[in-house]
Design a protein that fits this description.
The complex is a heterodimer of chains A (260) and B (635).
Chain A (H helix, E strand, L loop, with lengths): L1 H8 L8 E4 L6 H14 L3 E4 L2 H6 L3 H4 L1 H20 L3 E3 L16 E4 L27 E4 L7 H11 L10 E8 L2 E4 L14 E6 L12 E2 L5 H10 L17 H7 L4
Parallel strand pairs in A: 1-2, 3-5
Antiparallel strand pairs in A: 4-5, 6-7, 6-8, 8-9
Helix pairs in contact in A: 6-7
Chain B lengths: L9 H9 L3 E7 L6 H11 L5 H14 L16 H6 L6 E6 L4 E6 L7 H9 L3 E7 L6 H12 L4 E7 L8 H15 L6 E6 L23 H7 L12 E3 L2 E6 L2 E7 L4 E3 L3 E5 L3 E10 L2 E3 L1 E3 L3 E6 L10 E4 L5 E12 L10 E6 L2 E14 L6 E2 L9 E14 L6 H4 E5 L6 E10 L2 H4 L9 H8 L4 E6 L6 H14 L4 E5 H4 L11 H20 L3 E5 L5 H9 L6 E7 L2 H7 L4 H6 L21 E4 L5 H11 L12
Parallel strand pairs in B: 1-3, 1-4, 4-5, 5-6, 24-26, 24-27, 25-26, 27-28
Antiparallel strand pairs in B: 2-3, 7-16, 8-9, 9-15, 10-14, 11-12, 11-16, 12-13, 12-15, 17-21, 17-23, 18-19, 18-22, 19-20, 19-21, 22-23
Chain lengths: 260, 635
């Protein structure tokens, strides 16, 4: 997304800042990558973390994935958008990721309060996007809606785009819980009695908060190998996203409440 | 089908992928034709469904499925909770899969009458349509509707998928009869190809492979056909067109024009013209992303720099200098209405065509097209999902091409000026030559000269409010006061104009819009003549008051909201109209069975409660200035 935006506006820098809604639980490698991309692009970075959530000490282990996601991501995003008065925000969501996303518009219109009403979406014909909104209404724009996971990896390869190293396989400390491999990214991991991290060769197909994003066993330590693995994959990338399955119609509900 | 990719083969794989074309198609069929099942089958067979998705499909099939113990593939597509619960498809869904030869993007759209707009949406970006027919039912009204919409949206290639062959014993004659029936109907729709395929989405026959159960069928399977169908444009090659999306000015030395080529090729050195201004120059550089290139083709997103410093901005269109596009402000178009609130001729909407946004009005509905039968009929307004041939007038000239020549420069959407919802979608057919044949006669004695002669500020004072709110009483009294001060006035009263100028109009929404348009035009002429014009008209709709306002120069139009509550108006009921309306003897009566949209920011808000007419007029006299001397600087 960032690469596409820089390309689209080149030689000008993209005429908008970067916004990171931080939860305090992202992988260390993601923070490093963020710093690098900000330096490379010369774009302004705004970070926002929900101050109430922070004060309350909200985290995925102590408060559960659903509450954590709601407070630290959905609510935090809404706070950040309101605080800066952004009326349009770009996101990298794709229609192949999840069923309710398949029905979302490229220009996804949000009512006041950032609510998404899947039944009241504007018809989107040709490539004519209606960008008109009333005060308090906002738009989430998903320029790569029609890309697939495989498209993304091929594009990264073709354009030589820097990625977070976690996408490539390496020996990492993981704990297996309910069939999912959770990486121990920092000291906050609450080991159960007798539980121990084991070193396994793993990588990630999707990245979010580290306790909520499961790794997969993999030997794919090069981009080429990742592409081969993605092509041969028998499970979807969001399988490792624990929040997608916490309740039925989960993503649709989260999106209605304002989740990206 | 499934090929395992090894890391060592990746280079050749990536090469083959880079040139892999994408085919976008739409599937049309009604609830029971098995459309979702067919797409589910395609995804399933092309391994675009992952194991975990399959696992949740098994779970969902048990909860919502209609196939007993079997997997209900339709559930893969119905992504919204309401769809799963009701077993219907509500919205357009986009799905992705690939074969070794092509990538596919499928738009899955619901088939019912009330979802015509969704089907049009899915078809707008598709090159091919798969039209499903239930073999037991044959060509139905809905088949014809789907085909007409698909043809209207410019799709030239159709696959006629005769589904549920298993339920007619894979019978050849049944299939042939349906195909013959369809072809005789579709003959007039202008498709370049119609490929009939007998299949069973449920069992997978003819989906990926031809089935031994239909050995009489010698054609390709659906997948094989999708893989090989030739979609190269048989129409003549397009000329260079690029709507300017953004002007890129990182520094004083670089001024680039960004956009996506809507047609043709562009090379460094090519002569181009900027429309509508018509200024000509040459291409200095072509940028594609971070790279400077020598040429670009249709579909490429580029930044162009020019040899000369010419003026161009968003909404302008760059065209080949020797093959410019047309520029016009009056059109004939096909319009699909997509909103519950009907389209009324005369009402203003925002129109977006490529990167240009203007104000537009439908001046005339030529005829309504019945999407089921293809028959034409007369209409005064356009309801949700209706399609009509209309005349269209825009506030500024548009650079365009007929939709059949160029989808980008021939398609537009209409946006409601107040709610900003997308309410209509249209396809331009041709320009009406009226714009160039009626020239404005330049007048030497102008409004200002007439105003100076009368020593006053010509203007329009527009009183709006419910019937019986006191508009006419106030307007009369106000005019007397102005006359006493030597102001040259005229009063256009809503009731009075209906005896003459607007005698032919009734009280439907369309007629009211036309009523207001005529009064506003007359008021404009009178203001041009130097008069202070008072208009006393219920004018219940905001959009028409805005339309009236748009006819006048800034500061020339004063909206006065005579704010008397419905209860008070009804209590007074000077003309006995409310009583009549309540008895059901008057239809479309404002405040009773037709809405009144109160002004949000009128220049003068006049709450009448507790005031007598003289006190009201005093307020008007204080707030409205007709004196030229004080305001000379405003000319």
């Amino acid at each position: 997304m960032l690469h596409l935006a820089r390309k689209a506006f080149y030689p000008s820098p993209p005429p908008f800042p970067l916004l990171h809604v931080d939860t305090g639980w992202k992988f260390c490698d993601m923070y490093t990558h963020r710093a690098r991309m900000v330096a490379d692009s010369g774009m302004r970075l705004i970070t926002h973390i929900n101050p109430e959530g922070l004060a309350e000490g909200v985290g995925p282990f102590s408060h559960g994935s659903n509450y954590h996601t709601d407070v630290m991501k959905t609510q935090a995003l809404k706070q950040a958008l309101d605080a800066h008065g952004f009326d349009v925000v770009f996101g990298g969501a794709r229609r192949d990721e999840e069923k309710s996303r398949a029905k979302e518009r490229v220009f996804s219109f949000r009512a006041p309060g950032h609510r998404w009403d899947p039944k009241a979406q504007r018809p989107e014909l040709w490539n004519l996007y209606n960008t008109r909104i009333a005060p308090d209404e906002t738009i989430r724009v998903f320029p790569i809606s029609n890309w697939t996971e495989l498209d993304i990896w091929q594009y990264i390869h073709a354009e030589n785009i820097p990625i977070v190293p976690l996408y490539l396989a390496a020996k990492r400390p993981v704990v297996e819980r309910a069939g999912q491999l959770i990486m121990v990214d920092d000291v906050r991991f609450p080991f159960a009695p007798g539980e121990q991290a084991q070193m396994r060769r793993v990588r990630f197909r999707t990245l979010g908060c580290w306790p909520l994003t499961a790794a997969i066993d993999s030997d794919a330590d090069t981009l080429e190998a990742v592409i081969a693995e993605t092509f041969n994959a028998r499970s979807s990338e969001r399988q490792g996203r624990l929040i997608d399955s916490d309740v039925p119609g989960s993503m649709e509900k989260k999106k209605q409440e304002g989740y990206f | 089908m499934r090929v395992v990719l090894n890391t060592k083969d990746i280079a050749s794989f990536l090469d083959s992928q880079r040139n892999k074309p994408t085919l976008r198609f739409i599937t049309c069929g009604s609830v029971d034709d098995g459309k979702s099942t067919l797409i589910g089958r395609l995804l399933f067979e092309s391994k675009a469904i992952f194991d975990d998705q399959l696992a949740s499909l098994e779970k969902d099939s048990r909860q919502y499925g209609t196939q007993g113990e079997k997997l209900d593939l339709a559930l893969l597509l119905d992504g919204l909770q309401a769809e799963r619960e009701q077993g219907i498809t509500i919205d357009v869904a986009y799905r992705f899969f690939a074969s070794e030869k092509r990538r596919f993007i499928v738009a899955d759209t619901p088939g019912h009458d009330q979802y015509t707009r969704n089907m049009a949406t899915g078809a707008s970006t598709a090159e091919l349509a798969v039209i499903l027919i239930d073999a037991r039912k044959g060509v139905l009204t809905q088949t014809r509707r789907h085909s007409r919409i698909v043809a209207m949206m410019g799709i030239r290639h159709v696959i006629l998928a005769v589904n549920k062959m298993d339920l007619v014993g894979f019978n050849r004659e049944t299939f042939n009869a349906i195909v013959a029936d369809y072809q005789s109907f579709a003959h007039d729709l202008g498709f370049e190809s119609v490929q009939p395929i007998p299949l069973s989405a449920l069992g997978g026959e003819s989906v990926l492979h031809c089935s031994p159960l239909m050995q009489w069928y010698s054609g390709q399977s659906l997948m094989a056909y999708l893989d090989t169908v030739d979609l190269s444009h048989t129409s003549k090659r397009q000329s260079f067109r690029m709507p300017v999306q953004w002007v890129n000015r990182p520094n004083l030395d670089f001024r680039g024009f960004c956009g996506t080529l809507a047609g043709g090729l562009i090379q460094v050195g090519d002569a181009v013209r900027v429309l509508p201004s018509g200024v000509q120059t040459r291409i200095k550089q072509v940028w594609c992303g971070f790279d400077e290139v020598t040429q670009a083709a249709q579909g490429d997103a580029v930044t162009l720099t020019l040899v000369d410093e010419v003026d161009a901005s968003r909404g302008d269109v760059m065209v080949a200098a020797d093959q410019p596009a047309e520029v016009a402000d009056q059109f004939q178009a096909r319009l699909l209405w997509m909103h519950e609130h009907a389209m009324v001729p005369g009402r203003q909407y925002l129109l977006k065509l490529a990167s240009k946004e203007v104000t537009a009005t439908v001046t005339d509905i030529k005829y309504l097209e019945d999407v089921n039968s293809g028959e034409h009929s007369a209409a005064k307004s356009l309801a949700l999902n209706e399609i009509a041939c209309v005349n269209l007038s825009t506030s500024a000239p548009l650079v365009f091409e007929p939709y059949t020549t160029n989808r980008v420069l021939g398609s537009f959407i209409l946006i409601d000026k107040r709610s900003f919802e997308t309410v209509g979608a249209g396809m331009l057919a041709f320009a009406l030559r009226r714009a160039s044949s009626i020239h404005w006669q330049a007048m030497e004695v102008n409004k200002q000269a007439r105003a100076v002669q009368k020593l006053q500020r010509p203007q329009c004072i527009w009183l709006t409010g419910l019937s019986g709110s006191g508009k006419s009483t106030l307007a009369n009294l106000f005019e007397k006061h102005l006359l006493a001060q030597g102001v040259h006035t005229y009063l256009l009263d809503g009731d009075n104009v209906r005896h003459g100028l607007n005698r032919d109009l009734g009280f439907t929404e369309e007629a009211r819009v036309e009523n207001i348009r005529r009064v506003a035009e007359v008021a404009r002429l009178m203001v041009d003549a130097g008069l202070v014009v008072l208009v006393s008209l219920i004018s219940p709709f905001r959009s028409e008051r805005e339309m009236a306002r748009s006819l006048f120069a800034p500061g020339e139009f004063t909206e006065v909201f005579v704010d008397t509550s419905l209860a008070q108006c009804e209590t007074r009921d000077v003309k006995g109209l409310y009583a009549k309306a309540r008895r059901g003897e008057l239809n479309n009566f404002t405040g009773i069975d037709s809405p009144y949209e109160a002004p949000i920011t009128p220049e003068v808000h006049l709450p009448t409660f507790g005031l007598n007419p003289h006190e009201c007029v005093d307020i008007l006299m204080k707030q409205i200035n007709c004196n030229l001397v004080d305001q000379t600087h405003s000319f």
